[in-house]
Amino acid sequence: MKNNIMFIGIAGGTGSGKTTLSRHIAEAFGDLVTVITHDSYYRAQDHKSPEERAAQNYDHPDAFETELLLTHLESLANGEAVDVPVYDYTRHTRAKGTVKAEPRKVVVLEGILIFCDKTLRDRMDLKLFVDTDADERILRRIVRDTTERGRTLESVISQYLTTVKPMHEAFVEPYKRYADIIIPGGGDNPAALDMIITRIKKQLENEQ
User: Fold this and answer.
1) Which residues lie closer than 8 Å to 46 by C-beta, 6 or more apart?
2) In whole angstroms, what separates CA 141 from the centre of its chain?
3) Which CATH superfamily is domain 6-198 in?
4) What is the tens place of the pLDDT at every residue in 74-108?
């Protein structure tokens, strides 16, 4: 912890329940928590055609501007607010606005690839991996991408088979060994959530 700020990383495959777990932690600690998603740091692609953007491999580490994220995490650790990018999934590039993130007692960072970057891992005080069955994850992704991101069923399935699944096997699954806690069955695991909340409370109390 730096300046009494606890950084928590939540990794796991697409549709595993990372956002659900982040929400539970935020609900448990209220205004003490800031949540940041790695997805917000997808690289801007305004210079590319719509076809080139659609063909981008969004599940490879190079798709993210992780260097900007690291700069922002360092600013938060120093007590400074940051302007987090907003990503437009329908256009496959960044939107014009940003969202301000405040340096609160707990900063939660969630993303599929956050454990495969050593510098990111080293920033985290607690690393959580949400481990969910692949069939359940793809079904969740289909629902999310078709209802929230304007995608067709065919495009979601094609992307899953060509990039999501192989990238999961290369950059997500192997790195769960770095997790402090592995949460089976998704983000709605009451026993795991109780243990995590207790761990966070103890850490915060020790820093007072």
Assistant:
1) 93, 94
2) 15
3) P-loop containing nucleotide triphosphate hydrolases (3.40.50.300)
4) 999 999 999 999 999 888 899 999 999 999 999 99
Is-contact 69 41, C-beta < 8 A? yes
Q: What pLDDT shows up at residue 208?
A: 66
What does the pLDDT look like over 187-199, one tens digit per residue? 888 999 999 999 9
Closest by CA to 137, choosing from 206, 187, 89, 189, is 187
pLDDT at site 37: 97
What type of residue sits at position 171?
Answer: F
Whole-prediction pTM value? 0.90
Residue with tokens 């007590």: 79
Among residues 81, 100, 80, 73, the alpha carbon closest in space to that of 6 is found at 73
CA 122 vs. chain centroid, Å, equals 16
For residues 24-36, one letter each, b for 16 or more C-beta atoms within 10 angstroms of the residue's C-beta and e for the rest, the string is bbbebbeeebbbb
Within 8 A by CB and 6+ apart from 34, the residues are 76, 101, 102, 103, 104, 106, 107, 108
